[in-house]
Design brief:
There is one protein chain. By secondary structure, the protein is an all-alpha fold. Helix content is about 80%, strand content about 0%. The protein is built from 6 helices and no strands. Helix 3 crosses helix 4 and helix 3 packs antiparallel against helix 5. The longest helix has 28 residues. The chain is elongated, with a radius of gyration of 23 Å. The protein starts with a helix and ends with a helix.
Amino acid sequence: MAAAFMAGLAASTGGMAPMAMAQEAPAAGVDLDLLERRWHKCVRQAFSGQPAGLATHAAQKAALAECKSLENSYVSAMLVAQAAEAEARRQGKPSLGARARGWATSLLSYVVEPVTSWIDAWRR
């Protein structure tokens, strides 16, 4: 599914060479938070390195242009992760968030119920 998505994305970009798109395609186990932090750090550093007399809008555009490859990597990884989640939902597998909520709910029932009953018994 992710490979088909990336192929469709490469075909829709038109001006970009498919080879360049393949080089920027994220690996399956990429840490999205790490990619986001790298991109934000690059943008902050690029923006702080702009000449002082440059207009803010121009400095922002230049900083974003300088970090375009990191942005593309982050966005591609995000889209692949979303496609994988959608595929997992389609197959009936719960997402990581749903599994975490289920675990927290079961843990809560094992902890809260005994404590509540103990407090009620103590009050009587």
